[in-house]
Amino acid sequence: MLPGWHPDPSICRVDNSFYLVTSTFAFYPGLPIYRSSDLHHWDLIGHALIDESWPSLGPVDVSDGIWAATIRHADGVFYIVFTVAAGRTGAGLYVTTATRPEGPWSSPRQLDGDGIDPSLFFDDDGKVFLTAARDATSPHASGPGEIWMRQFDPSAGALIGPTFILWHGAATGTWVEAPHLYKRDGTYHLICAEGGTERNHAVTAARATEITGPYRTDPRSPLLTHRHLGDHATVQNVGHADIVDGSDGRSWAVVLGVRPIDGHHTLGRETFVVPVQWSRTGPVFAPGEGRIVEGAAPAGRARSSEDWISLRGPVEAEVADQRIVLTPRPAPLDSAESPAFLGVRQDHHMGSFEAGIDTDEIIAHEAGLAALQGSGARLTVSLVRRDTGVVLRATHAQQSGSTLLGELAVSGHVRVGIRMTETHYAVTAATSDRHDVVARLPRTSLSTETAGGFVGVTLGIFNIAAGDASQIAFHTVRYCRGTEGANSQSGLAHPMASLA
What we know:
500 residues, mainly beta, seven-stranded antiparallel beta sheet, six-stranded antiparallel beta sheet, elongated
């Protein structure tokens, strides 16, 4: 439904429109808001965390930052609750509100609670409750995590009253997270995720007749998982469900999943939709199938200049048509600061990302393209000036160090590219009279299974130099998806869809 890394989806409906939000980690702007009328085609209409509403993340890792949010609507107000994480753990729970989904959204207010994956539930008696996941506090807990709940006061934007411990999960020994509450025919259904966001990921559930419990495990758990389908399943790691009712009375769930090739995924955790039927005992996910159908792929979405994302805050850039002028910063790509990097999520296994650069502009710069999987895993295509002229360097960086994959002397206007196939990333350089494949890197080198982390690959441009150095213009910045881009021998010879 949303290709490229869009994990931890949450959804709500207002009238005939659905609104969806996903995690953004250390990338800016945060928490994209998508709108759809059919749960298939989605338009990006804004971000909840931008400008004055952007929280200061500090020097966090790429996979920390803004974690799993929940979006809800009540009495004309949209609410988003989310986690700011550091060191792979929750560092604070926050709430932001807006009267229009496009924004502006309020400056986030920190809540008096701990853990991750907060969610709001608006009961039919007018009370509002927040649930979240944290490390278990009870010595009698059946698992390492627990779901807790407190009442939320919308007028004050604060938690009030006592804390209730609701559940410790269905699977002994695994962490329970991603809680969402629903009420059906007088019964409260607590839907959660267990097994970690990897191959054992699963949707589990508990239910109670009172909102404070006691909650008893739904014996049908797991209600949805792909862990039993083996390594050949097209979609894997399925979990983290949020349910929404359509205006026609039918119910649906958004879930995350990955599409690996030969056991490795580079696109990150994507968002999928499955139908839901409510039975006497609770929700039935993907009735008649019990899984996301083999061969299913996320739907396309409308693209705009707002798809551009940077790290830990905004960058200084002028984006016009397919030309981007990027102001340099001294921070390298592996720093915990905000480098001059502007990218877009890789959302197809096959394709190419390209830009033209005039080598005369390269003075004291290191500028070029990058396929960024995380702080410690990336492929960079850098233009740097040496005594003999400008050199293009292809480098693979990982936690253990950097490896030079290839080097090429270039001059004049050069079109630099990163070409993606199902087996590798290829670095290309093209001028008016020649085309070179400078280096190749196995695709698995930038996979989550190899490099870790919670994000997929982000393709982008960067400009590293002292603050008083000149800007660099990137010309005809294009991302072509599919076999045309993957098989392209020159970015000058094939039309591509513009990102801008």
